[in-house]
Specification:
alpha/beta, 44% helix, 5-stranded antiparallel β-sheet, nicotinate phosphoribosyltransferase, 6-stranded parallel β-sheet
Length: 391
Amino acid sequence: MIITSLLDTDLYKFSMMQVVLHHFPAAHVEYRYKCRTPGINLVAYIEEIRQEIHALCQLRFTEPELQYLRGLRFIKSDFVDFLGLFHLPEKSIVVQPSAVPGEIDITVKGPWLHTILFEIPVLAIVNEVYFRNTSREPNWKEGRERLRTKMQLVTGDPDLADFRVAEYGTRRRFSRTWHEEVVNTLKAEMGPHFAGTSNVLLARKHGVTPLGTMGHEYLQACQALGPRLRDSQVYALEVWAKEYRGDLGIALSDVYGMDAFLRDFDMYFCKLFDGARHDSGDPFVWGERLLAHYQANRTDPRTKTLVFSDSLTIPRAIEIAKRFAGRCRVSFGIGTNLTNDLGHEPLQIVMKMVRCNGQPVAKVSDAPEKTMCDDPAYLAYLRQVFQLPPA
């Protein structure tokens, strides 16, 4: 089977899940899958996908896995106790053919606490099922050579002594075995330049640091869970700080766009959080604006970390690193370009939260194609509330 452990997911799913357990245990949500790559026929493999999801829903955390999670400094014992009883509820997920020929629909509905772990393994399943059926003889030699070339761009440049990159590619990986080979290779050959991986299973297995904080769904859900919509971003950051008390201090900046983020990210948050993560829009413009914002709020940017994770390649990351060298701390999360660069076009697939407690929720990105909402009226209202330009 493709997924053999519930740890085979990104760390930020666990960090968000702990917040859900402690602050929003009754929240009910809906997620929907979307393939942004046109002309992809997945209906031919729908039964295979269903079988893999059925197997996923049979998995439980093992005692050694629970002990590993218990050893992470920010994971609390009652959360691990809950995970000891956890399994993904198969009744909450439906996979069916779409109205669009060849495409499929995947919908997840249920308690947030019990469905939050579906997203990453389901996307990994769709990817691997697709590629093992359409690319039966991948060019492993070419893939290894590409990976080696990328690493040499970093290790061969003396100006990049402080360059740090993490692997973020679970959801769009070519396959589980290739993903593990990539992490093993990065660990063996990049030395201190390799910061770690978002994948908890591989972090545990290979003794590297698991990395991640919050995702878009957390701030989206707070649109329905907070006291009022306009304060939902502030509310999300305050609840996060209450849960982690200064740990996991990288704020996500692009749920409502950079303008709205900077309006809410005041001096209190500038000093409280360790930094912010870029995930849409021009990274250079974003970085310059954030550094200026820190200075305007009497915060030394050199003490803060800017995390870049939007469709990165190693050359692009190097370009960003050199732009901001000495002005702040920078780190990079690279996903698809590391775990699915074998000469085939990767699938652009996502699974996003679209409702929480029966209310529409949305992400309004600096990259318009990343905006996802099933209620145009709510989306227009959200734009108005956060002073965003019309679509």
